[in-house]
Design brief:
Chain lengths: 128, 128
DNA sequence: GAACTATATTCCGATGTGGGAATGTAGATA
DNA sequence: TATCTACATTCCCACATCGGAATATAGTTC
């Protein structure tokens, strides 16, 4: 992946917010919708943009699509550096912090950490 | 300056090359033209784009326009972090390294470090 | 002032992007 | 099988961007 393509992925605020959340771990689309409070088509298209360029991966789990950052070991040096930089910058940004706070609440209400939408989990799915 | 605006400035290869050179110090447009080997209008427009968004500053010196990065102290945390990240990434990139090598040759042939196009300098201008 | 140099701007076309409304689809559930 | 849920895709429009050709401008030199 070329460096400029990484920046092209980072040059939209919605995508920055998605990546900021993904830095905390895998998430399904309904989490993004709930945290960002944006229309489904907008979220889905930006996730598709990131996926087409290799900045995120997706796997299906029942009705849900779980998005993740590529595995640490498979990230290029440039991607590692820029994701780390994004995380640093987001730490001082009100909007990004608000998103993380909302995510934390969702995690409590809707999916235990590490068991996103697993059938074996307590609930019958995602009510977020 | 918002974080996303920084990334918008970084999402074009020509602009990345310009900034990579500026990380070494101030330069005039003819240096950029010579190093990048791109048309004058292309260089000038991308410099204008960066200037309009505060990523570079410009001052006139005779016929020449000298472009610089904003003073270290006036850079936001986000800009500092991303310029440092860019410099790291560029260090491992063939094109950016080639640009720097070309710049080094120009510096020898055409302008002593720190005396870019100064009238008090030896030559009568820039022959790059 | 005329000519020249270095750079910026304008005009134009091609292309990409972002957003929303509507529709399609894969899998689960009844 | 029919329906429902979660998500993706298509179609469309508005708009920004990129690039080059041509032109304009600021400052220098003769």
């Amino acid at each position: 992946m070329k460096l400029v393509q990484i920046y092209q992925c980072l040059c939209d605020e919605t995508r920055l917010r998605l990546l900021n959340l993904l830095l905390r771990g895998p998430l399904c689309v309904c989490h993004f919708q709930s945290v960002l409070d944006e229309p489904q088509v907008k979220i889905s298209k930006h996730l598709g943009y990131l996926k087409a360029r290799g900045l995120v991966t997706a796997k299906r789990s029942g009705n849900w699509m779980i998005y993740s950052l590529p595995a640490e070991r498979s990230r290029t040096v440039e991607l590692k550096a820029n994701l780390a930089c994004l995380q640093d910058c987001a730490a001082g940004n009100a909007l990004f912090k608000r998103d993380l706070a909302r995510l934390a609440k969702l995690d409590l209400a809707c999916a235990p950490v590490g068991a996103l939408h697993e059938k074996s989990a307590a609930g019958s799915g995602c009510d977020c």
